[in-house]
Design brief:
The chain has three domains: 2-97, no CATH class; 128-199, no CATH class; 201-256, Molybdopterin biosynthesis moea protein, domain 2. The longest helix is centred in the middle third of the chain and has 28 residues, at 172-199. The strands form two sheets. The chain has a three-stranded antiparallel β-sheet with strand order 1-5-2. Strands 3-4 form a two-stranded antiparallel sheet. Strand 3 (219-221) and strand 4 (224-226) form a beta hairpin. It has helices at 2-24, 29-50, 54-75, 81-94, 103-129, 131-141, 145-167, 172-199, 235-246, 262-275, 278-282, and strands spanning 201-204, 214-215, 219-221, 224-226, 253-256. The model has no long low-confidence stretch (mean pLDDT 85). The chain is mainly alpha-helical.
Length: 283
């Protein structure tokens, strides 16, 4: 009964977080903190009912693993703070046990696939909406030195794989597919960068900045210098930028908006409840 309640609470939190992330690119801290508190409460009640420490330990380990995953993704610039905190809340609510059919383990595994597919779909959608500007940026990037080197390496790898496909008839289809994938991924990387430049960079008033926003360019006004960092702006940085704006020394700043990632949590969670761990299905 309590595990069902934990799953229902997890689904509700993910749904609300997905909506707010799509609307505002933020996840309320109160929502994730509530998830952690409810996870611990449910685990404590379950331990008392069963007269066993296992549920409480499972929730505690899930919280720690959620924190580890969230921190790793946050400090490498892959997730925002809201995504990381949501992972902690889900670890607390779902609990951890070292089995592929454990709900938290299955969800985390499915999130890898769901996140990749969601990010690709979102980027392609933005490319389609902004296709004229994105295509111009794409063609410009193709002639930049860094991307010319990438394209050269990609063509060399693709050619090598095609030659191997012709020579090794036993794995011909697999090598041919790998060659096409290698070629396609280089162009997808260029398309993603094009989308970032034309649709994910926006000039906004410093008054609209919040903690965690990602600066695109360094801001230097007098003795104040604030550089972009992977973890986004700290509250002290936000206060300095707002103060500069109020003094009339800074009009706008360029910030980067990433892919709203929480909806991929919802996709992964729904798949987990319906089908379980995708690895078990593959195996």
């Amino acid at each position: 009964m309590l595990s069902t309640i934990a799953i229902a609470i997890s689904a509700t939190i993910i749904l609300i977080a997905s909506i707010t992330d799509l609307k505002t690119y933020e996840v309320p801290d109160t929502l994730t903190y509530l998830g952690v508190a409810l996870g611990w409460l449910i685990a404590t009640i379950s331990s008392i009912q069963q007269w066993s420490a296992t549920p409480a330990i499972s929730s505690a380990i899930g919280t720690l693993i959620g924190f580890a995953i969230g921190a790793a993704m946050f400090y490498t610039g892959q997730w925002g703070g809201g995504d990381a905190k949501l992972m902690i809340a889900l670890g607390s609510l779902l609990g951890f046990s070292p089995h592929l059919d454990n709900t938290f383990v299955a969800f985390t595994t499915n999130l890898i696939f769901a996140g990749g597919l969601w990010g690709l779909a979102w980027s392609l959608g933005l490319f389609a909406v902004n296709r004229k500007r994105a295509w111009r940026a794409f063609k410009a990037l193709m002639h930049q030195k860094a991307y010319v080197r990438v394209r050269t390496a990609t063509l060399a790898s693709t050619t090598l794989l095609l030659i191997l496909a012709l020579l090794m008839k036993e794995f011909q289809l697999e090598l041919f597919a790998l060659a096409m994938l290698c070629y396609a991924l280089s162009h997808l990387a260029l398309a993603a960068k094009s989308i970032e430049l034309v649709a994910m960079h926006k000039w906004i008033s410093p008054e609209k900045l919040t903690e965690g926003d990602w600066l695109v360019h360094s801001v230097k006004v007098g003795k104040v210098r604030i550089d972009p960092r992977k973890t986004g702006l700290e509250m002290e940085d936000v206060k300095k930028l707002k103060e500069l704006h109020r003094k009339g020394k800074l009009d706008k700043v360029c910030v980067k908006f990433g892919v709203p990632f929480v909806p991929s949590f919802l996709i992964a969670f729904a798949f987990t409840i319906a089908f379980g761990n995708v690895l078990l299905l593959i195996l």
